[in-house]
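Section handout, structural biology tutorial.
Before the tutorial, make sure you can parse a SMILES string by hand: atoms, branches in parentheses, ring closures as digits. In the record below the ligand is coenzyme A, and the chain has 355 residues. In the tutorial you will relate the predicted structure tokens back to the input. Do not try to memorize them.
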Amino acid sequence: MDLATETATLGSRRPAEMDAPDQGATARPAAPLVARAVLAGIGGYLPRTVVSNDELARTVDTSDAWVRERTGILQRHIAEPHETCAYMATRAAAAALADAGAVAGDVDAIILATATPDQAFPATALRVQAALGCGGFGFDLSAACSGFIYALSVADGMIRARQARGVLVIGSEVYSRIMNWRDRGTCVLFGDGAGAVFLTAGAGRGGGGDRGILSTHLHADGRLGDILYVDGAVGRADRPGHLVMQGKEVFRHAVVRLAAAVDEALAANGMSHSSVDWLVPHQANMRIVDAIAKRLHLPVERVVVTIDRHANTSAASIPLAMMEAHQDGRLRPGQVLLLSALGGGLTWGSALIRL
Ligand SMILES: CC(C)(COP(=O)(O)OP(=O)(O)OC[C@H]1O[C@@H](n2cnc3c(N)ncnc32)[C@H](O)[C@@H]1OP(=O)(O)O)[C@@H](O)C(=O)NCCC(=O)NCCS
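Predicted structure of the complex:
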């Protein structure tokens, strides 16, 4: 059974045990059932406009060779004016629901990770809610490039706590709007896009063998806030709001902290490197991805890489990579995915998922 077939069943049906009241239930199985967030559908959206390194080199002092060699990036998608965070998120979320065979009525919550929302409020998640015709509740979450992992973790907790049964987790970003297009050290690195997953409450037995989100680990160190930040927001009318980065420092932290994060995820689940079928890392720099893969003794063929075509789409990069691997048939039921990301904050973390 492929992922699409299996998730189609899950997405349109709520497991009976999730509907049963806690007290007074009869015929409980011997091992207590736990609610677990199961990956039911994956979707994404990329703007049509593609900008190559050569095209960028016409307006900023850079070259295709430099960008390729230092980052692995060949091109990026750049949003047109109508392609806002909400616009792209809505399309990614609709695709994730369709992939799950689910409908708007199956959605209890929308958690949208972004640093580039359409408005200060309402939350972009609620623009998506209205566009899709969902009920329930929703909110935005700010954790920069780690936003998708943070949002997955919150969704997993809500599902385990039986606060929600169907949760759309979205990463949607238009970093092209916060770029300083005269800063060659940053403007060549980022792209726009949105990715989404639909999580449904499944019932596991608490053991590591079940499907769903096995663990998430979140970290942050606010003392490192000045090595990667945006120098403005609506609360700072005097500032335009452009991304500023000390690239070498971020690179150094990324390699060290992501290596620790993947080790932590495996240790928490009693797994070894060989248990991982796919590493789906945040796509910031191919050299960082290579370093993490080496740490896991994973050949590059088992790493989902999109940075060459998408560049760094921040909170959208992991779900977009998952979407690609799902659509081209690489993802299969039962496989273990290891997600890892680091971003402004600094924030970093991991998620381990069994499909
Ligand atoms: C940004 C990054 C690619 C820069 O690579 P680097 O090897 O560290 O390069 P440096 O910043 O030391 O710059 C080296 C030289 O290239 C130049 N340079 C920087 N950007 C350039 C560009 N786009 N084109 C051409 N030259 C460039 C610099 O000016 C510098 O020149 P100099 O030696 O004459 O001063 C790298 O540091 C990086 O990827 N960092 C992490 C970024 C990241 O992950 N960010 C997001 C986290 S979510």
